[in-house]
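Dear support,

Our group has been running a series of protein-ligand predictions, and this particular one with fe (ii) ion is the one our PI (initials K.S.) wants archived with full inputs and outputs. We had some confusion internally about which version of the output was final, so please treat the block below as the authoritative record. The input we submitted was:
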Amino acid sequence: MALPQLSKNFNDVDHRDPKGEYIPISVEGLSTGFVKDLELYVRAGNAFFMVKPKSMELSPSLMSRFWGKFPYLYIHHTSRETYFRSLENSVTSIIKSPNYGLREKASVLTDYAVEIVDQMMRDPSSHVAIKSAENFSKECVNFIASSQHAFIHLVELSSHDHYTYAHSVGVAAYAVALAQSMGTWSKQQIADIGLAGLLHDIGKSVIDPGILNKAGPLNEVEWQTMKAHPTEGGKILRLHKHLSPIISLCAEAHHEDLKGMGYPKGIIASSLDSSVQVISLSDAFSALTTNRSYSKSKDSMTALKLMRENINKKFDPKFFERFVFMFLDPKKKEEDGFLKGA
Ligand SMILES: [Fe+2]
Ligand SMILES: [Fe+2]
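Confirmed final output from the archive:
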């Protein structure tokens, strides 16, 4: 059975408060109750209005007022710590619970990951944030293993967000799904690959935001600066000594390729641990299917076709074929000769 395609209108990046005073949380995860002790706000233009004081119960009738009308509610940034702790304390039981659907679980997991990426981008040396990232990765593996359709919910929801968050969460989800479907890694190794996906671009935390968010092509000097992010990422992740070395390796090598034409070192990627290939593929696909400041997102089929042109140069056919299997009905794929065109 074919997996559903990503929906076309998933790139809603306008829901973030430009001042950062209010933090968006997805309405779809509300029923899990993890925000029950927080004040909640709705947004109208640039104004925010409280719809639930701390003491008010988050009843089904209150929630029904938001469903279908507001994709996001907001918390004030002063409640952020409480919000994050609540997420952290409840995420494991929510993912395990038979009482919630895939969409609700994916929503909570995405909100959790977005907060972790935000913390890591602000303080990449934080051991507390790394612990949370490891917890996310473990739950991401449990969630994706729970159903064939779980990862699509996760990448679709994460794609609603700003590129920095959407991309990191998307790469983690694709990497876990691909690593699981290869069937050669243990659960712990897959969790490490998921963590590598979430943190592969952490080196961007030291790059000038003016370059990162530039709405247009980078000039030569800017491009050279940008190309330092894998090396910086490797350095940052090696500071966390308890992590598996594959996590810093993936950050360092995710822009290398099979012909030694990538950066920063021009290493032949097939000489490295094969988890690097999982991250490179997931990274390329997520980058193509997520809106960026300088390019519009592509649908998943167009993205796969563009990637197919780089088989044997950037992507190992064995991993690419498995990645395609995650999206296509095998019969249709045969009819289309999708992989024969490679
Ligand atoms: Fe990168
Ligand atoms: Fe990336």
